[in-house]
User: Fold these one by one.
Assistant:
Number 1:
Amino acid sequence: MASWFGHVEPAPKDPILGVTEAFLADPSPDKVNVGVGAYRDDNGQPVVLECVREAERRIAGSMNMEYLPMGGSVKMIDESLKLAYGEDSDFIKDKRIAAVQALSGTGACRLFADFQKRFLPDTQIYIPTPTWANHHNIWRDAHVPQRTFTYYHPESRGLDFSGLMDDIKNAPDGSFFLLHACAHNPTGVDPSEEQWREISHQFKVKKHFPFFDMAYQGFASGDPERDAKAIHIFLEDGHQVGCAQSYAKNLGLYGQRAGCLSVLCDDEMQAVAVKSQLQQLARPMYSNPPLHGALIVSTILSDPELKTLWLKEVKGMADRIIGMRKALKENLEELGSPLSWEHITNQIGMFCYSGMTPEQVDRLTKEFHIYMTRNGRISMAGVTTGNVAYLANAIHEVTKSN
Ligand code: KET
């Protein structure tokens, strides 16, 4: 009998998680992984935050393991909304936000994309160029047509603000836009507060819908509240917004899949309807979200002492990355690199969008066992005091002749 699956070709490697696979398979003792955006301590080891350890101690042995409701933990959602929309937000008081716990940031984006397809089937999604590669997969699998908008200016290694504004103006009225709330991945380039205000104003004129992916709240400035500024600007301007929150990075809960999807509605009745439909999307997909991460999140964020500890720890992670930016730049300059590396310290968040070509990245991997995505993105979270000189030297070797 003919095979059922003979026609199935191997899927292409994921451009980010595939890097981790290749890194793990390399036996070299010198190998360095600056691929995936996952925080490491200065010894290159994964970090479990102290506030998380303490929350786990408090939870241990005291909770049952029943299913959460389809929409997830109400307590975790309440805390997430305060973090994104502000502690005293009227939208929260007025119950205008439809929100469900999601399978981390990816799951929140996907749930929104499915919701968009079901209830606004004629809309498209505008995605920045470049963006996190998985955004394209998410909206593709949800069958929402994609367009791109200008974001990055390669020559200045900064924001292409006029290109961005033109694309916002030229999109059909009422378009959906995916915006990175802070610490844009992969470029590390965010609009200034003033530029966000102009973007928000133009969204208003064009009646566009802003969907914020906030995967790095706390990693841009070191302060989660400040990092929600873009969303607050849009809220002040009276926009309805959507927001995907992730606790993978800022609480280090990567594998726990803890996140939240929220949609600001006109009133409480609309929010109840939207939430019920988000739950209806979740039910046949995964039924209800995982419990443990939600418990950790709600335990930390609802306890003033643990929350203070968390804020200190987020700041610590952001600061270590800033220190490594400086160290990498200084090392390259000391090696006499003829290129400008100013952008390493100008860019913010977890990543440095180095400007290296795919061929240069291939050389780094082949000759130096340094693993990163082929778009030249360096996860600064993987750079340490121990490997920064080695990394700088390798970068210098592959870039000096160009
Ligand atoms: N949004 C953005 C912008 C993002 O960079 C990530 C993860 C996510 C959402 C999803 O994270 P989650 O773990 O689902 O909460 N980015 C890193 C990891 C990955 O690719 O999955 C990365 O870019 O390396």
Note: Residues 16, 36-37, 104-106, 132, 134, 180, 185, 213, 215, 246, 248, 254, 259 surround KET (CB under 6 Å).
Number 2:
Amino acid sequence: MDYSKVLQEIKEEIATFKNTGKVATYIPELGKVDPSKFGVYLQCTDGNGYGLGDSLDCFSIQSISKVLSLALALKLKGKEVWKRIGVEPSGDPFNSLVQLEYEKGIPRNPFINAGALVVADILISELENPKEDLLQFVRNIAEDQSVEYDEKVAASEMEHKFRNASLTHLMKDFGNIKNNVDDVLDFYFHQCSIAMNCKQLTQAFTIFLNYGKYDLSKEAAVLDPILAKRINALMLTCGFYDESGEFAFTVGLPGKSGVGGGIVALHPRYYSVAVWSPPLNKNGNSELGMKVLELLTTKTEISVF
Ligand code: DON
């Protein structure tokens, strides 16, 4: 497959794309990002990588971090995690409170905010230096020790914490948060603030390729094959909140979005791919990013289906 040619064709096709999306402003620091930024990076399992546009510019990975924190929590706690979080799509927005009340504080899945907050709580209990250890895990799997938290983004989100604070307090009341609520929020906002570029993200997500056996040199990061399988399944069914069905329908790959405008997707056998374009559709997913990934699987005729 000539991926370089495919990416060039995609670039030409999206030149006339009418983007109706809006950059997220509910975290004020994210609202400062240039909406015209656009990058793609594709990392193939044969070792070749292809970049386009601003693929080496760092951006706030936001909810994409939920996949990486889950991978670490599962490595540390295994099946125990599923006693506190479900594995079903929610069909609701990422920050919705409604299901939590009648499902007694057990989040539907680890990729909605409530689920990621429980994962954060698990990591705080398990890790000696939670923020340092999570960052080191991400640096190791990205094979890049320069990856950092963006303290301004983390502080900006803490200032506007009210909905995530409500979710965490409600789950604390149900006994599903063990640590101090503000510690959980501080850890969660830091994980969301991680700044990475498309290339680093595709590298990090190679841990989910080939049943976790793509790159055995990443010792600490290598995932048990069963975990790679399960996390990919969750990305497919829950990675885009109330738009997960639409993403499977139009793109056909497991993936995860973030309100920073990034999307990472992967074909378990062939590649991981990251796209970044800040304007979001009404469900909080990058509008152009979804289009690019649709074109990628359509043109290559490679998707999980
Ligand atoms: O908790 C929040 O609202 C953000 N830190 C992350 C939300 C997010 O990225 C949703 N994804 N599309």
Note: The CA atoms of residues 87 and 230 lie 9 Å apart.
